[in-house]
Amino acid sequence: MRTSRYFSPALFRFLRELKRNNNREWFAANQGRYQSEVRDPLLRFVSDFAPHLRQISRHFVADSRPVGSSLFRIYRDTRFSPDKRPFKTWAAAQFRHERGRDVHAPGFYLHLEPGEVFAAAGIWRPDSDTLAKIRDAIVAHPRSWKRAVSGKEFKALCALGGDSLERPPRGYDPEHPLLEDLKRKDFVCWTDFNQAQAGAPDFLTRFTAAGRAAAPFMEFLTRAVNLDW
Question: Which of 68, 102, 157, 220 could potentially form a cystine with 213 if both were Cys, beta carbons 3.0 to 4.6 Å apart?
Fold first, then answer.
């Protein structure tokens, strides 16, 4: 696998400065830095990850176009938020299923923020119909679910996360042996890194390994919501 440094200390330095100067005037004066220190390295990473993603599943997409791609926009949507700060203070990319239309689709994810670097995989904040499909699949195929989240590689690199209900979901057995999983509102797993690892030449290898470890979990979720794996 190719080794290359993608994310230099300049990326995290830019994001720290943006957090202190989260306004349009500062960003306009530093937009060239954003492009060269944050956007372009992340797009290069997306492009180089694409062939490795195809080996995990050919139905997930690594799109390295500057606009409308796997890269999250730096601009915040403030229309319905009391927080009117215009920019995100983190950089990220999501590798969605080819039929996914938004952030809530099945996908692999990379998050880069000062003090918080991680890979994730799964379905974040699924709608009620999607959530029901996943819960029904767990009930119908409990052994497959347990295999997906208890494999050696998965347990070594990944941890289940996200929010859960306090009470059993309506319509499901409150005594079900997998109740804690049925209570989940997010079906995501995480692999934590640090800034030094993100800046090392083997980070693409590390990120790909996390994606491969999460593959059985992702396959279960993808098939549960009637998408091709």
Answer: 157
CA dist list (Å): 145 to 7, 53, 179, 184, 224:
35, 22, 13, 14, 10
Residue 198's domain is classified under what CATH number? 3.30.930.20
Q: Please tell me the distance from the alpha carbon of residue 104 to that of residue 92, in angstroms, as a whole number.
A: 15
Give the count of domains, the chain: 1
Per-residue pLDDT reduced to its tens digit, 104-140: 789 999 999 999 999 999 999 999 999 999 999 999 9
Q: Which residue has the tokens 């379905």?
A: 123
| In a domain? residue 35 | yes
Q: What's the pTM value of the predicted model, to 2 decimals?
A: 0.93
Tokens of 192: 């934590």
Does residue 1 lie in a domain region?
no
CB-facing half-sphere around the CA of 63: CA atoms within 13 A? 17
- Identify the domain containing residue 81 by its residue range: 9-224
Whether 92 maps to a domain, the answer reads yes
Residue 167 belongs to some domain of the structure: yes
Task: Answer whether 118's CB lies under 8 Å from 93's CB.
Answer: no
What's the rounded Cα separation, in Å, for the pair 122 and 218? 6
